[in-house]
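It is worth pausing here to work through a concrete case rather than discussing structure prediction in the abstract. The textbook approach is simple: state the sequence, then state the predicted structure, then interpret. We follow exactly that order.
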Amino acid sequence: MKRLFILFQTVVLILLSLNNTSFADRKYFARSYLSYTLPQRAMELEIWNTMRIGKTEGYYYRMQPSFEIEYGATDRLTTSLYMNFDQRTVADNSYSSSPLAFTSSSIELRYRLTNPDEFFVDPALYFEFSYGGDELEYEPKIILSKRFGDIVTAININAEIERKVIESEHESKFELTAGVAYDLSNNIAIGLEFRNHRNYSDIFKEKQNQATFLGPTFNIQTEELYFTINFLKQVGGSPSTKDNLDLDGHENFEIRTILGINL
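Step two, the predicted structure:
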């Protein structure tokens, strides 16, 4: 199924990659949002897939696909509905394999505060609420981005609180992401992305672990679709489990793809 999913993305990309018109909400990055929003009444389908690979011991592969419908409620407000899935394949370690299954649904609101280039930085606010039966998640985010000619930059500051309904317990996370991309043409961009992720007990009570990732990003876009792929390698983490990396709370490698289709 994993191979079919990747093949589907590749086939659609090839069939529709011969046009030059840009998306208003083009995803230059796989880890950071830009402040751009969809035009009013515009709609997109996005297919996300995040792959997490490598723990301290044995074999570990986790795939997290998501299917999203985005809608421009106004020129400044983009709304989204996600359907989230999860699968794990592991061997020779303490983790458990699990088949591909639906885990949660999410509602996202993204509001652009200013017009592009109105100030020295283009800000936006983001909020996501997820429900998975026995878990609730709240995720606010500050989005800062700026274009300098052919160079696009972004910084996202993100917090996440998870509430386990049955146990009445909380977990929390903090994430800082950043990216810089360069337009090789109207259709193709390359870039570099940074991610630092931290897990906390309760509501930011005590830090449990943290990891920093770095890696390249590639984006191609047409009138009908865009495709973004990002590869991240953990370059440092704590507490260290192997080679100054945290491979208990995080993985060694992360790959994310986003396929957006204009509806």
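Step three, interpretation. The longest strand covers residues 206-221. Helices lie at 2-15.
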